[in-house]
Design goal:
six-stranded parallel beta sheet, alpha/beta, globular
Length: 645
């Protein structure tokens, strides 16, 4: 029987665990402690829930976050009373901001043991402020059928609120009186004789946001109010911005964006952290070098859009944000959540729908034709072009130069090369974007491919071409995410990118990456040295981890992102207080945790190590770089790639 009738606390906790298991919970991450013992025992004894003990609460919470990122289902996170709960806070903030479902259960002292120095008792009610989607304190456990009904339905509601209408964290504070261990209580025996689990749990079934979940279309897009669609169709100077995204069904997401792009004949400016760059064959109008293009002020002025459709978060690029802020196009933000995605406070309209839904709606809107409703261009097409067959390893990754005599069509896609299917642009604005993309991409590829020494920008450029198909990669904040935006090449490798870009912190990066990699395809983490050092307790997860994680460590002995900021000109105190070099021997650190470590000496060795990833374990591939030299290389080159166009 799934319910543990040894005492009131075991009944209460086992009903909680069994309800969650029937709703679809698969994983619980538990930190050690006494007050949470009833919960720990209940989850540990539930054979259908994988229960993982992790010592450090901050690390545990980010590990749970990583599992939820990968599965798109809530992960349960459990701790004892006191400051243990406070250590969950950074991950809860990230879950809220990046819209990841989590269920947080904090055990607590009962009311009579609070505010009286009973020990390990702090005010845990609403400890996470307004970050949870929903939060409550449960009643003191009771073995009455009525109170168990209350518990079951409260857990059902908590599960739902962690997924709908916008995924995020839910917090339940759970007070327990002694006994905390499962010693028998004869007072509970009567309940056991009357309890029918099939009746009690009748009607419970898995509840989660599935593939068919489609939000209703907003009023601006529904029948009889087609002015928005017609306005888009009339414009020959529109852009689509594909921002940071980790969709559950990446190919459908990218196909939808491609369909919107081809329906409107607008370019897609795709962030390096968007899956669009990793499904490049779907989109003939993919622009990956927009940050570098917009550094050419003359080009930036020529490319000023009338309308911008922003899908999800804005990309990381400061150049893009400044350009949008300066040009102030009419902007439509596409995302089904209730969040505000406009940090620029521009002329924006939030359309609370998904790109998949929008693509479907566009197919129903009659295309404007020459001489029609204000339109003067050819009919829009909504069909998705056939996918290009998989590429062979020996195909070239170089984009051929474009001469004046050559067609403006995008060349066929090679592995790791420029995305697109052969189509002809129907307006000069789109053609300018596409021609510029081809030339800037060619310049970048030629420049970086010629670099033989170990340099940071080449890492992300190379990774986008050599990783095994479908590889999950977790990209750390600070400099790695920016190098990915600058240099990640469009490809057909269907790489699965994961990030913590909700709050953009470096907390728990290793632990989150391990959560993503747990019971997953062999995975990669790209990080700097300070970010890895900030979460070395994540290495303690090693013995509970199933799968493989390769950590690509860019060790520049400090905070490389700060070298790119004006504060770098002020030393002192720059080096000590901003760059903060740590002088850590990572080989010795890895030995302490029993983690494989190797220093990468050249690019050929780097390629060989990533050509076929191991199936299990953890390893660190360390690339030792010169922080100042790499920063100078970026400063010298980023503004030059599009300078002479």
């Amino acid at each position: 029987m799934p319910i543990d009738f040894r005492n009131t606390n075991t009944v209460w906790a086992s009903v909680l665990a069994e309800t969650l298991q029937r709703l679809g919970l698969t994983t619980a991450v538990i930190c050690p402690g006494s007050r949470s013992a009833p919960l720990t025992i209940a989850f540990a004894l539930n054979k259908k829930i994988e229960t993982i003990p992790i010592l450090d609460e901050r690390s545990a919470s980010f590990f749970a976050l990583g599992i939820a990122k990968k599965s798109y289902l809530s992960t349960a996170l459990i701790c004892t009373s006191g400051t243990a709960a406070a250590n969950f806070y950074p991950a809860i903030i990230e879950a809220r901001e990046s819209r990841i479902p989590l269920l947080i259960f904090t055990a607590d002292r009962p009311p009579e043991l609070r505010d009286c120095h009973a020990g390990q008792a702090i005010d845990q009610v609403k400890i996470y402020s307004n970050y949870p989607n929903w939060q409550a304190e449960l009643a003191i456990p009771s073995a009455s059928r009525g109170m168990l009904d209350y518990l079951r339905q409260t857990i059902v509601y908590a599960w739902e609120r962690s997924h709908f209408p916008t995924p995020g964290p839910v917090h339940l504070n759970i007070p327990f009186r002694d006994p905390l261990v499962p010693v028998p209580d004869i007072a509970v025996e009567a309940l056991e004789t009357q309890f029918n689990p099939e009746d009690f749990f009748a009607g419970l079934e898995s509840i989660f946001a599935g593939e068919s979940s489609t939000p209703p279309s907003p009023p601006l897009l529904r029948g009889g109010e087609e002015s928005t669609m017609q306005q888009w169709q009339r414009s020959n100077k529109g852009i689509i911005i594909a921002g940071v995204a980790q969709p559950q069904f990446a190919e459908k997401y990218c196909s939808a964006i491609a369909q919107i792009s081809k329906s409107l004949n607008w370019p897609v400016l795709a962030e390096g952290l968007s899956p669009v760059r990793n499904y490049a064959q779907l989109n003939p109008h993919l622009i990956s070098t927009y940050d570098l293009i917009l550094r050419n002020r003359e080009l930036a002025n020529k490319l000023t859009p009338e309308i911008a459709i922003q899908i999800g978060d804005l990309p990381t690029s400061k150049e893009l944000r400044n350009w949008l802020d300066k040009t102030q196009p009419k902007r439509y933000i596409i995302d089904p959540s209730h969040h505000n995605f406009d940090p620029l406070h521009g002329k924006t309209i939030h359309l609370r729908t998904s790109p998949e839904n929008l693509a479907t709606i566009l197919t129903l809107v009659p295309p404007l034709i020459k001489g029609g409703l204000g339109g003067d261009r050819a009919p829009a097409t909504t069909a998705i072009s056939p996918q290009i067959p998989p590429l062979n390893k020996d195909e070239s990754t170089q984009v051929p130069p474009l001469s004046k005599e050559e067609s403006t069509q995008v060349p066929p896609l090679n592995k790791g090369g420029l995305g697109g299917v052969l189509t002809s642009p129907s307006n000069e604005y789109l053609q300018l974007w596409r021609n510029t993309e081809i030339q800037v991409r060619q310049t970048i590829d030629q420049k970086i491919s010629a670099i033989n020494n170990i340099i940071e920008p080449k890492v992300s450029w190379l990774l986008s071409q050599i990783l095994p198909p479908g590889t999950p990669i977790f990209i750390a904040n600070s400099m790695p995410v920016r190098d990915v935006e600058f240099f990640w090449k469009p490809n057909n490798l269907e790489i699965k990118t994961f990030v913590n870009r909700g709050a953009n912190g470096i907390d728990g990066t290793l632990s989150t990456a391990l959560g993503v990699a747990h019971r997953n395809q062999s995975s990669i983490m790209l990080t700097g040295d300070l970010t890895l050092l900030h979460d070395t307790n994540g290495f303690l997860i090693k013995n509970k981890f199933f799968g493989h994680l390769t950590i690509i460590l860019i060790n520049n002995n400090g905070g490389g992102i700060f070298e790119m900021l004006p504060v770098a000109q002020f030393d002192p105190p720059f080096e000590e207080f901003f760059a903060t070099p740590q002088q850590i021997n990572f080989a010795q650190l890895c030995t302490t945790y029993g983690v494989e470590h190797e220093v990468i000496e050249d690019w050929q060795q780097f390629k060989e190590k990533l050509n076929l990833l191991p199936n299990s374990g953890m390893r660190v591939l360390e690339l030792q770089t010169d922080r100042r030299a790499d920063a100078k290389w970026r400063q010298d080159n980023l503004s030059k790639f599009a300078k002479d166009l």
